[in-house]
Amino acid sequence: MSLSLGYLLPTRERAMVGIHETGPILKLGDHADNIGLDSVWIGDSLIAKPRHEPLSMIAAIAARTKNIKIGTGVLLPMLRNPVLLAHQVATIDQISEGRFIMGIGIARDVPAIRNEFKAAGVPFEKRIGTMLEQTKLCRALWSGKKTDWDGRWNVKDAELAPLPLTIGGPPIWSGGGVSAALKRSARYYDGWFPSGPGNGKDWSKSWIELKGYAEEAGRNPKDITGAAYVTAAINDDITEANFELNSYLENYYLRPAEEIRREQYSVAGDRASVTDWLNDFVEGGAEHLCIRFTGSNDEKQMEELALLREQ
């Protein structure tokens, strides 16, 4: 299997069972770095799916690791002021010495997330335009040039410091599987980072479509990283693996597991069958996968992930 594999850190899972301490999660970041995983990822939510604030956690992990990339899987930039976000991300990129990946998304249209946007004072219906303008403004501020901006935000003669270590700012990966989302990633962003639906063959069909949009926009598709966010349950007992996956999804989303499995890349099986399933992404052109595991033994899961990479 020739691709980069990353591990989603369980910030949401810990909060769900009342564990709010950050120390154990930081140690998981250390462990991932020590065993040579390619990346660790942290999700984002204010009150819809409460968890640790991702940028704070990423800064802490970046300060105590050396090699591993650290990303948001995914950040909801619309919930943040873009000038503050640009400042935070530039600082994190310096702390990490260029290891930060800014995964972004528009959020699913469900009541809890609509309530989250309302609580943050952000119009849910305008979230896509807001995100596009935010990332453009962030990149303008990361350019090192004085920035004037007249739009949703009014910025006059602004100069950001520190600048990101990565020239122009860290890579931005955007998700989504519908044609409009593929066009956004193809035109504006450095990577495509969807979470479903379907499997690696479905991912590949959309990836081919995205590369066509990139060429239409005058971009080289090779400049865009193909990635995916996958949920996996690995168990020698395949029946038990499916039970673990279904239980995890139902507890996490409070919806029937079969619905979630249709909407998101999800796999349950033994190591061989999971490896075969993931290889469909590789054969379709994926370069990076973020794996969310369903069990509770995080160190063992990370080591399982390292073994998968060798298959």
Describe what this molecule looks like in 3D.
This protein has 311 residues and is an alpha/beta fold. It has two domains: 1-174, TIM Barrel (Alpha-Beta Barrel), CATH 3.20.20; 175-311, Luciferase-like domain (TIM Barrel, Alpha-Beta Barrel), CATH 3.20.20.30. Helices cover 46% and strands 17% of the residues. The chain contains twelve helices and eleven strands. An eight-stranded parallel barrel has the order 1-2-3-4-7-8-9-11, surrounded by seven helices. Strands 5-6 form a two-stranded antiparallel sheet. Helix 4 (82-95) packs across helix 6 (127-142) and helix 8 packs parallel to helix 11.
Work out the helicity level.
40-55%
Q: Biggest sheet, in brief?
A: 8 strands, parallel, barrel
Helix count equals: 12
Q: What's the number of domains?
A: 2
Reported by name, the CATH topology of the largest domain is TIM Barrel
The largest sheet has its strands arranged as 1-2-3-4-7-8-9-11
How many β-strand runs? Answer: 11
Radius of gyration: 19 Å
**Element string (H = helix, E = strand):** EHHEHEHEHHEEEHEHEHHEHEH
Mind sketching the topology for me?
Layout: E1 4-8, H1 11-16, H2 23-34, E2 39-42, H3 54-64, E3 69-72, H4 82-95, E4 100-104, H5 111-119, H6 127-142, E5 147-150, E6 154-158, E7 172-174, H7 179-188, E8 191-192, H8 200-216, E9 225-234, H9 238-253, H10 257-263, E10 266-269, H11 271-283, E11 288-293, H12 298-309
Parallel strand pairs: 1-2, 1-11, 2-3, 3-4, 4-7, 7-8, 8-9, 9-10, 9-11
Antiparallel strand pairs: 5-6
